[in-house]
Amino acid sequence: MSFQAYLDAIEDKTGRTPRELLELAKERGLDGPDVKAGQILEWLQADYGLGRGHGMALVHVIKKGPQIDAKHVGSSGSHRDESDTLWLDGKATKPV
């Protein structure tokens, strides 16, 4: 599953775009450099029922932003993405 596919599935499961979840994490103080992934995962599990795989995709966005490693762009592997920048504003607004 591509990184973007994980984020799209998170939107399906939670009803919130990745950007909305990023803002909620900031409001909860879960976006600082000292915040551990486990703290974010606990919140996502408790409030949204997200498992570890989906949660870790969002942890990346919360801690590192929407950029991903370019090695996955255009590759033929199962984790390939179309761009090295993830779309955070929801599937309905994603450019074609």
In total, the number of strands is 0
The share of residues in helices is: 40-55%
Radius of gyration: 13 Å
Shape: globular
**DSSP summary: helix tally:** 4
Distance between the termini: 19 Å
Largest sheet: none
Quick structural gist:
The chain has 96 residues and is mainly alpha-helical.
Can you tell me about this structure?
The protein is mostly helical and 96 residues long. It is built from four helices and no strands. The longest helix has 13 residues, at 52-64. It starts with a helix and ends in a 32-residue tail after the last helix.
Topology of helices and strands:
Blueprint (H helix, E strand, L loop, with lengths): L2 H12 L3 H10 L9 H12 L3 H13 L32
Summarize this structure as a short list of keywords or feature phrases.
49% helix, globular, 96 residues, mainly alpha
